[in-house]
Amino acid sequence: MDFCEIKIDIENEHKGLFSTKNYSKGNLVIGFGSTKVVTTPHYLTVQIAIDQHIHLSPSYLQFINHSCNPNVLFNTTTMELESVRDVIAGDEFTFFYPATEWKMSQKFDCHCGEKKCIGLIKGAADTSIEILNNYQLTDFIQSMLIEKGNSIDSKD
Ligand SMILES: [Zn+2]
User: Fold this and answer.
1) How far is the CA of 124 from the centre of ligand 1 (A)?
2) Taking 90 as the threshold, does the pLDDT of residue 149 lie above it?
């Protein structure tokens, strides 16, 4: 953990993972793998295929929270955590749940406080294409959208 630290919000005891380094958009933050692959989603898993959800390794990556203005993506093709915008030392690492999750085990109300917060967070299957178009998504989610009949604009 030479690039990050876990911090606990004393108000709600939520843990978060914070960067101790600077990254430019598109940088590799860390490679990841799985400690276990399961067939049903859990709130700590990341989806890599239709019936495959991984428990992350290194396990502290599970403390990366959702934000509607995320700064990293779990790229499940390269198995690399990459920055999707600039990250400055001290920033909390955050990702956009529907960028990797097709259906989520539990929907939740987002309180990220970002201007463009989308409110109720659901999997990509239940999120509008207009919203998804604003985000970098995994190849898996993009392929699911194409299968579902939606084409998406590439962000880069
Ligand atoms: Zn939000």
Assistant:
1) 15
2) no
Domains (range + CATH), the chain: 4-148 (2.170.270.10)
Residues with Cβ within 5 Å of ion ligand 1?
68, 110, 112, 117
Encoded tokens for 142: 């993009």
Widest pairwise Cα distance in the chain: 44
- Within 10 A of 74 (CB to CB), how many other CB atoms are there? 24
Question: In Å, how far are 1, 19, 20, 29, 78 from 6, measured between CA atoms?
Answer: 9, 9, 10, 15, 24
Nearest to 132 by CA among 111, 88, 102: 102
pLDDT digit string, tens, across residues 77-88: 999 999 999 999
**For the whole model, what pTM was predicted?**
0.92
Mean pLDDT confidence for 101-117: 93
Contact indicator for 72, 64 with CB cutoff of 8 Å: yes
Cα-to-centroid distance, 121 and ligand 1 (Å): 8
What one-character-per-residue DSSP string does 104-133 give? -SS-EE-----TT--SEE--GGGS-HHHHT
Q: Rounded to the nearest whole angstrom, what is the distance from the C-alpha of residue 28 to the centroid of ligand 1? A: 24
